[in-house]
Task: inverse folding
């Protein structure tokens, strides 16, 4: 059995800390860009001020809840921690939600150019109206979907810097 050194343990802890740190940063960026909020129960919601409609963010039939609130137990049978950084399917679902709720656009094709999970590539979207959009290049697959929200919002280049800074392999 191979022996694990203190250096390897320290490196593993540093990687785990960076992932958790990046996940928290990503949650903040997504919530701000998509104008999402946390209600009193810890649920992630979209509060549409124009029509007064509140939409709960759900994924796979479960309510998305903030994992950042202290003393908040998550019922894994009914709830899902809101972590688009570590959950690629959630990040893709948020993009689909954004396209339907904010833009009203129908997608014909959505896919990444990389063959393996979390390797260099970009997201490509093809819409029913014939428009094709290619995202920026990232290693982390979840960021490819979040990047597309930024692109469709017309974000300025400095905003992409924040996404690039949390792009870990």
Result:
């Amino acid at each position: 059995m191979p022996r694990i050194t203190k250096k390897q343990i320290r490196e593993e802890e540093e990687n785990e800390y960076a992932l958790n740190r990046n996940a928290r940063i990503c949650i903040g960026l997504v919530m701000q860009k998509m104008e999402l909020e946390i209600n009193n129960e810890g649920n992630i919601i979209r509060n549409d001020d124009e029509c007064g409609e509140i939409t709960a963010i759900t994924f796979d039939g479960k309510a998305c809840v903030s994992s950042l609130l202290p003393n908040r137990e998550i019922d894994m049978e009914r709830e899902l921690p809101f972590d688009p950084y570590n959950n690629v399917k959630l990040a893709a679902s948020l993009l689909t939600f954004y396209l339907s709720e904010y833009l009203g656009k129908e997608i014909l094709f959505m896919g990444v150019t990389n063959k393996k999970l979390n390797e260099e590539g970009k997201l490509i979207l093809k819409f029913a109206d014939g428009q094709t959009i290619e995202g920026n290049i990232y290693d982390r697959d979840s960021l490819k979907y979040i990047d597309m929200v930024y692109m469709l919002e017309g974000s300025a280049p400095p905003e992409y810097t924040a996404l690039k800074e949390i792009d870990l392999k």
User: Anything to note?
Assistant: The first strand starts at residue 36 and ends at 38. The two ends are 27 Å apart (CA to CA). The helical segments are 6-33, 88-103, 141-153, 157-165.
